[in-house]
Amino acid sequence: KAGKLASYWRDMWFGPSAAVATWLGILLFNPHALIAASTLLVLWPCSPLIALYLGRHIVEQPPVRLDESDTQLIHLIARDTWRFFERFVGASTHWLPPDNVQEYPNRTIAERTSPTNIGMMLLATVTAYDLGYIGHRQLISRLTNHLESIQRMRRHCGHLFNWYSTRDLQP
Asked: DSSP letters along 90-148, please?
C-alpha cells in the first residue's frame, strides 16, 4: 500500500504543490482570506491520499435476500402507491398527478403538480407494468398521455417550472 501511495504522490505532485503556492500567495497578498480558503487548503494537499482511498477496490457484498413477509409488504406498498396514481391521474388532470389529497375533514384534491410528482408518476407507471398491475397497451396509453401533457407545459430555458395547475397546465 505504501508503494501505491508513493505512486499517487508521484503522479499527482502538482496538486499539493499548487496548494502550497496558493497558501503562500494568500498569506502574502490577502491573509484575511486564509480563513475562507482553509478547508480547500487543508484538503487539496491531501488529494493523492483521497484519490488512493476513492480508487480502492470495493469488495461486493452478496445481495440481501428478503424474506416472504418483507416481499409481501413491499408489494402491498407498491400496489397501494399505484392505486393513488390510478385513481387520481386521468383526463381531468391532464394525465398529471395531484400534489396531494387531503382526506380529513373533507376530501380535497390539490389541483397542482410539480416535476417531482411527475417523475414519481412516470416511475410508478413503468413499475406498475413491471409488476403486472397494467398491461402493455395501458402502459403505452398512459405514458403517451403523460408525455403529451408534459410537452404542452410552458418552460423556462427548457426547464419545467416548480408548480403547474392540473386544470389548465399553467405555471
From this structure: SGGGTT---S-EE-SSS-EE--EE-HHHHHHHHHHHHHHHHTTSS-HHHHHHHHHHHHH
Residue 75 CB partners (closer than 8 Å, separation 6+): 131
SS3 content of the chain, % helix, strand, coil (to 5): 65, 5, 30
Residue identified by cell 400496489 is 79
The model's pLDDT over 32-72, given as tens digits with 9 standing for 90+, comes to: 998 999 888 889 998 998 888 888 888 888 988 999 999 99
DSSP codes joined into one string, 148-168: HHHHHS-EETTEEPS-EETTT
User: What is the Cα–Cα distance from 77 to 10, expressed in whole angstroms?
Assistant: 53
pTM (2 decimals)? 0.64
